[in-house]
């Protein structure tokens, strides 16, 4: 049987089958169509404007590495007029994050972008290794997710950027929709599918890969021979998200469009006004100034539990009541530095960057 020709250019030999569409296409057409789809997502959502300073959340993994490459490519090709930075968070996971950050440093040289690395240790006084030693592997992802989100905002504020972009792909978003359904957290369904989010006191954050399949991101990285770190986090195998991921992979095997279908279902979901009325209004944390729906933000509550030797206090109601029964936090309790958003003139100090030599 003769080799198939590309379904798009009808000239070159097809060497891959797109998981997203089933088309058999050549390598060059795959690069072009993948980049064009991301460009169309950016344009249709109006994510950027000329002159924006954009921080790319860089972990060294496939998603963020491909995102950095594609953002630089599209910025040059379509003249977005963006100033791009790499922003990495060091969670303090020995044998994982320290190795992946070496990849990020190589990406810095390869893509000629300034790099800022911010660690949990310098913000919260704890590394993930230390947290896991106290809480175990069952709920550690709760701590990491909360701390990472605030660390990204703090890093972006120190860079005076207008926008953070992350490598969350279609699979990630579909998994989040499934997780919210499994937990009965209906109020978050609409928000978790938004391509762009921004709180009153946080920096605009978006997901250019919202409609990009994880398999295609891997194929793009492979055929482009990009330099990325492929080891999974050593603390993630027990994460709740893994159940949603396994379920989604089974759905995708039976129906490849399931990923996009789930995202569209989340987009179409509407919460009744009476349900919205019961949701807590947005405010700022009285202790660290970060956005919160309570007097204390989740990060401050988690940190207080760690500092007082009751790490589960922000995870279970029973543990929280036990912490409250211990009385108010001592005056010498370690706290998170006060959050200052760079969108308010004069509220943050520029930081030193690692720049490509």
UniProtKB/TrEMBL annotation:
Protein name as annotated: Cytoplasmic tRNA 2-thiolation protein 1
Gene behind the chain: NCS6
Pathway linked to the protein: tRNA modification; 5-methoxycarbonylmethyl-2-thiouridine-tRNA biosynthesis
Coiled coil segments of this chain: none
Localisation per UniProt entry: Cytoplasm
Keyword entries, A-Z: ATP-binding, Cytoplasm, Nucleotide-binding, RNA-binding, Transferase, tRNA processing, tRNA-binding
Cytoplasmic tRNA 2-thiolation protein 1 C-terminal domain: residues covered: 283-313
Domain tRNA(Ile)-lysidine/2-thiocytidine synthase N-terminal: residue ranges: 54-232
Presence of the UniProt keyword rRNA-binding in the record: no
């Amino acid at each position: 049987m003769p080799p198939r020709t590309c379904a798009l250019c009808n000239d070159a030999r097809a060497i891959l089958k797109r998981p997203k569409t089933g088309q058999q296409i050549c390598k060059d057409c795959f690069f072009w169509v993948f980049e064009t789809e991301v460009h169309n997502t950016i344009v249709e959502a109006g994510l950027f404007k000329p002159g924006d300073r954009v921080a790319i959340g860089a972990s060294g993994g496939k998603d963020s590495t491909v995102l950095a490459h594609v953002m630089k490519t599209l910025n040059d090709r379509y003249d977005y007029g963006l100033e791009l930075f790499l922003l990495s968070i060091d969670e303090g996971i020995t044998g994982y994050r320290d190795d992946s950050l070496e990849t990020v440093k190589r990406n810095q040289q390869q893509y000629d972008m300034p790099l800022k690395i911010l660690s949990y240790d310098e913000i919260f006084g704890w590394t993930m290794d230390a947290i896991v030693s106290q809480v175990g592997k069952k709920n550690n992802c709760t701590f990491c997710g909360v701390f990472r989100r605030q660390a990204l905002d703090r890093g972006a504020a120190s860079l005076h950027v207008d926008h953070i972009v992350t490598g969350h792909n279609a699979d990630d978003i579909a998994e989040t929709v499934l997780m919210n359904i499994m937990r009965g957290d209906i109020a978050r369904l609409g928000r978790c599918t938004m391509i762009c989010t921004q709180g009153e006191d946080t920096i605009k954050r978006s997901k250019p890969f919202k409609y990009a399949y994880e398999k295609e991101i891997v194929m793009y990285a492979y055929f482009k021979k990009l330099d990325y770190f492929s080891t999974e986090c050593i603390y993630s195998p027990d994460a709740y998200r893994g159940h949603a991921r396994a379920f989604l992979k089974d759905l995708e095997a039976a129906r490849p469009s399931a990923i996009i279908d789930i995202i569209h279902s989340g987009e179409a979901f509407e919460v009744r006004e009476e349900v919205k009325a019961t949701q807590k209004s947005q405010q700022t944390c009285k202790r660290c100034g970060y956005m919160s729906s309570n007097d204390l933000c989740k990060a401050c509550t988690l940190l207080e539990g760690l500092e007082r030797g009751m790490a589960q206090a922000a995870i279970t109601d029973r543990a929280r009541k036990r912490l409250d029964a211990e009385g108010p936090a001592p005056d010498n309790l370690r706290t998170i530095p006060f959050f200052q958003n760079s969108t308010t003139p004069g509220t943050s100090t520029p930081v030193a960057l690692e720049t490509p030599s």
